Amino acid sequence: MIEMNRINHQFAIGKKGKERVIPVLHDIDMQVKQGEIVAIVGRSGSGKSTLLNLMSGYIRPTSGEIRVAGQAVTSLSEGEWANFRLAHLGFMFQSFQLIPSMTAFENAELPLVLKGIGLAQRKKKVMEMLEQVGVAEYAGHYPGELSGGQQQRVSVARSLILNPPIVLADEPTGSLDSDNESQLLSMIQHLNQDRGTTFVLITHDEQVASIAHRTITLKDGRLLNAYATGGTLVYETH
Ligand code: ADP
Ligand code: MG
User: Which PROSITE patterns does this entry report, sorted A to Z (predicted)?
Assistant: First the structure.
């Protein structure tokens, strides 16, 4: 479902002509199969978010090739990437990234609007989705009127509303209390079992890692297992 071949990434910072190059990812080779839940773990600064942003096309690798759902995405234009995302990817974030001037309903509805789906069908889908994540009664509320757990549910509704085959999540439970965390994790497991949704979850939380089929560890921008084996990738399984 996701394949990274020889991915290197560096950021350039500073003024033009005086740039400093920060190498962040080194020779990343990895695959995520359809229906897998993969956890990516590693210290802060090890490159986890950068790796996920490469999978979502928000940044382009300095070198190497990425395939998502069979498509070589490294060569897509920005416009093609936008359509590709709508068709294939859902996102979950630690900071829920809701739009404060829009109600819960309107936030969850956004992907449907972007896809050009008609009003009647949007209404039905959004209410079903809000129902499913347990915040239907707050449809007309603004994010500022909702608790953190409720905001995350709205955010999850938005990320799942187009039924994406792949969900990329950067510390999705990072600002949730343990009840809300358990509920989100069990929702992820159900989606994975019922629909075969593939998940890539960045986390430093053991409870999150415990629902993963497989854990990939990053250290200083390298896959730790690649370190141990001198470059030949051996997945840790459990
Ligand atoms: P993690 O998610 O594991 O904490 P990140 O992928 O966010 O790690 O960051 C890895 C390294 O890349 C860090 O040293 C960070 O400072 C650097 N970095 C991340 N994004 C940028 C950016 N846009 N510009 C410059 N450096 C960045
Ligand atoms: Mg991060």
Answer: ABC_TRANSPORTER_1, ABC_TRANSPORTER_2
Where does the pLDDT of residue 121 fall: very low under 50, low under 70, confident under 90, or very high at 90 and above?
very high
Which of the listed CATH numbers 3.40.50.300, 1.10.8.60, 3.40.50.1580, 2.60.40.3580 matches domain 2-237?
3.40.50.300
Which residues face 215 on adjacent strands? 39, 236
Give per-residue pLDDT as tens, 71-85.
999 989 999 999 999
pTM above 0.80, yes or no: yes
**Interface predicted TM-score of the whole assembly (ipTM), two decimals:** 0.97
C-alpha distances in Å from residue 17, one per residue of 11, 13, 24 = 15, 10, 21
Length of the chain: 238
Q: Whose CA is nearest to atom 15 of ligand 1?
A: 45
**Ligand nearest to the CA of residue 41, numbered in listed order:** 1
CA 238-89-93 angle, to 5 degrees, is: 75
Q: Which residues form ligand 1's pocket by a CB distance below 6 Å? A: 11, 13, 22, 24, 42, 44-50
Domain ranges of the chain: 2-237
Q: How close is the Cα of 116 to the center of ligand 2, in Å? A: 32
